[in-house]
């Protein structure tokens, strides 16, 4: 078992390799979330809100219905309506009703929302680089492939 995980968990005994892997993944996610929570807080949004903005920027100038946004989220959020409400109050998104079906609203990112995503991009890129600084590009690619292999049968 690695020294970092022993230090994090304050333990000395070795764990079964599959348990060690699971714990290492969970610790990594916790560390990433902590770093990114602080980063997004500086911009007055949450990571989930950033994810919505990123999705909407990808289809700009068009938008998506709530269900489409929800289906594209990294973390599937059941409260997508409240997330969009908060973004709308901040002026980062706007909603329009479709002419075909007035029950459906399409959410679009605003210029202010695009500005935040654009400002965050280099900061996020820097975080990704710092977090993976001990790995070369080939190791990053291989690790990504292996992690994807873990969950690919669950999609």
Overview of the molecule:
- This protein has two domains: 1-42, no CATH class; 44-154, Winged helix-like DNA-binding domain superfamily/Winged helix DNA-binding domain (Arc Repressor Mutant, subunit A, Orthogonal Bundle).
- The protein starts with a helix and ends with a helix.
- It has helices spanning 3-9, 17-42, 47-58, 66-72, 80-89, 111-131, 137-151, and strands spanning 64-65, 93-97, 105-109.
- The protein is elongated and about 60 Å long.
- 63% of the residues lie in helices and 8% in strands.
- By secondary structure, it is mainly alpha-helical.
- The chain is built from seven helices and three strands.
Backbone CA Rg: 19 Å
The number of domains is 2
CATH superfamily of the largest domain: Winged helix-like DNA-binding domain superfamily/Winged helix DNA-binding domain
> Main β-sheet: number of strands, strand sense, barrel status?
3 strands, antiparallel
| Helical residue percent band | 55-70%
Distance between the termini: 30 Å
Strand percentage lies at 5-15%
Count the DSSP helices: 7
- The helix-and-strand class reads mainly alpha
Instruction: Tell me, briefly, the overall form.
Output: elongated
Name some characteristics of this structure.
155 residues, mainly alpha, Arc Repressor Mutant, subunit A, 3-stranded antiparallel beta sheet, 7 helices
Briefly characterize the structure.
By secondary structure, the protein is mainly alpha-helical. It is 63% helix and 8% strand.
